[in-house]
Amino acid sequence: MSNNPPNQIKRVRLSISLYLNYVAHGFGLLILSQNMTALGQSWHAPLKIVSFVISGIGIGRLLAYLITGYLADKFSRKFFVYLGMACYLTFALATPFAKNVYFAYFLAVLAGIANSALDAGTYTTFAEMGSQKSNILLKAAVSLGEFILPIEVASLNGRWFGISFMTMAAILLVNALLLAPLKFPAPQQKNAAVSAGQQQVSKKKLLATVCFVLYGYASMALMIWFTQWVTMFGQKQGFSLASSHLFLSLYSIGSITGVFCLFAILGKVSGQRLLIFMNLAASSAIAVMLVSQTAWLTALAAFVFGLTAASGIMQTGLNAFMNLYPSRKGLATGVFYFFGALASFTVPIITGVLSDVSIQLAFGSDLFIGLLASCLGLAINWALKPAEAKQAVQVKA
């Protein structure tokens, strides 16, 4: 074993710092929506306008993912991690003091750019460390931030709302100091020699690329679709308001449980096969919810959906996509998450139109997305099977 203890310690320290950034990112995802009333008062704007400002985060992602992904392969990964931290720090420090909607919208766009820069630098860094399984745990770090923030906001109890923003800023500042002395791994270079077998699968590689890009959209849409409509669907099915909210809570518990289950399984089961199994299981859970007449069965299905669709299966798809382009990991990340951001922008519009027909249709159409994700997983598995048989990908924790 050539890994000496000092190097291993540095890898662990680097991993912890990268996870800390995603705890702050968990704050960033919810911090505007958790402080909507206070922000509206500060900007002298109604809640509808505050909601519009929140949409700026999605615009920032759409604007930045392709650019940061492409440039992450040209410059150091550390630069993009620090760029994401700097953008998030500016957002956290300035938003409580913003006095108009225009500046606040600019800061929200900056938060979206921060998200894309962090993804471009972080996912690729874990891949270069030979630790793509660790990408799955980033979702757990985000969930931790999303868990802490609402508790902190609720505990402020009339005190200045900006304290939650300052907590986010403090995490980033402390982490910037922890990260400064650490070296990031050098990008792996693609082997110049291309075998005849690799040339033969070029068309399949193109098919896999198209499917991965579409999977970036479908895997994000699957989760957003569910979380946006499950509570209203539960009420329309005749369940109580408490039960309907419980479905979303059980989805979240399933998601966190699934992250650790997936982390344990991933080294033993092919990532491509997991894309098929997990999305089929998620589709089955939605089908059960559509026909269920009992709260306990619907609650169980909501948990199973979180366990499968929101367990990190999107990150598993990204890992496999990066393996397909070992010298273009940053660009692969940018393209994959660009389509994920496109889903977060378009799904509310699509489901809003469907809800005019019925809430059941708006929620139930997620079954189509789950089946689409399953079919994409099947196509990816078929396209990559020859390469997989030749060279088994070993993923180290």
Produce a short descriptive summary.
It is found in: Cell membrane. The chain is mainly alpha-helical. The protein has helices at 5-34, 36-43, 47-72, 77-94, 101-128, 133-156, 162-179, 196-200, 202-236, 241-265, 271-291, 295-309, 313-324, 329-355, 359-364, 366-390.
CATH class of the largest domain: Mainly Alpha
CATH fold descriptor of the largest domain: Growth Hormone, Chain: A
How does the overall form come out from the CA principal axes?
A: globular
Helix-strand makeup class: mainly alpha
Number of domains: 2
Ranges where pLDDT stays below 50 over 5 or more residues in a row are 191-201, 388-397
CATH architecture of the largest domain: Up-down Bundle
Number of strands: 0
Proportion of residues in extended strands: under 5%
Keywords:
397 residues; mainly alpha; Growth Hormone, Chain: A; 2 domains; 16 helices; 81% helix; transmembrane; MFS_Transporter
